[in-house]
Amino acid sequence: MPDVGHLVRRPASPPMLPFSRLARPCRAQWSSLRSASRATKQATPKYPQKQLRFYSTEPPAPPRSASVFTPSSAVVFVTVLVGLVFYFRHEKAKHIEQREKERAASQYGRPKVGGPFKLMSHTGQPFTDQNLLGKWSLVYFGFTNCPDICPAELDKITAVVEAAEKKHGKIFQPVFISVDPARDTLSQMAVYLKDFHPSIVGLVGTYAETRAICKAYRVYFSTPPDADPKGDYLVDHSIFVYLMDPNGQFVEAFGQVTTSADVVGKIEEFVGEWEKNHDV
């Protein structure tokens, strides 16, 4: 027989419970936790969610004002500006014209304009103040390289002569005197005058002769005595059409702002008065 005296008796192990019985307490605990969570949610008060607002620390930008420079306002502005420019030019020309008339007046109140002269016509013939006697003369000073003013004034003289001759006949002698002797040759003058009234006589002289007749008619011109005949320059000069009677006496000066109709009206008055006083 084996010796079993030394073996120790161990207490009996408790009996094993089935798994279903072990899982019951876990299920009960999970159910209690879910019930507690539901109760907590029901007990927690619900507040409406508010929209968060953010504020900037920078100052607010100034409001944009509507632009006043629209296309239509720009057109109006340009139109008004152009009108003002023409208005002030017209008023300035009138002022200069009146000042020149006052300056040309003598101490007895009668303008001292005109006098003896000797020049060459565009046909190559000598022409003096004696050639103007017996007719009403329209005398204008300019130059053939003038871009705009001289052609406009010669067009005005053409219209005046055509209108006046319809009533009084060929009693008028228009004259165009050059203030640019360096460039205005006889041939140049002849070609230039083809665009205007055929009775206009172009007169050209030396610088000394030009200066003398300009002084006699109180005409200002800026051409220097040593001007280059091939130079590209403009000439400043007085802008007047001088009306001389058949005796060579000054009658009236018509400025740039005077229209051809106004000139014709004045000529009608002067010719009528002349004919009445001279039994013509």
Automatic annotation (TrEMBL):
Cysteine pairings via disulfide bonds: 146-150
Stated name of the protein: SCO1 protein
Organism per entry: Armillaria luteobubalina
Localization of this protein: Mitochondrion inner membrane
Residues the entry annotates as binding Cu cation: 146, 150, 237
UniProt keywords, alphabetically: Copper, Disulfide bond, Membrane, Metal-binding, Mitochondrion, Mitochondrion inner membrane, Transmembrane, Transmembrane helix
A Pfam cross-reference name: SCO1-SenC
A GO-annotated cellular component: mitochondrial inner membrane
Listed SUPFAM superfamilies: Thioredoxin-like
InterPro entries tied to this protein: SCO1/SenC (IPR003782), Synth_of_cyt-c-oxidase_Sco1/2 (IPR017276), Thioredoxin-like_sf (IPR036249), Thioredoxin_domain (IPR013766)
GO terms, biological process: intracellular copper ion homeostasis; mitochondrial respiratory chain complex IV assembly
One term of GO molecular function: copper ion binding
Bilayer-crossing regions: 68-88
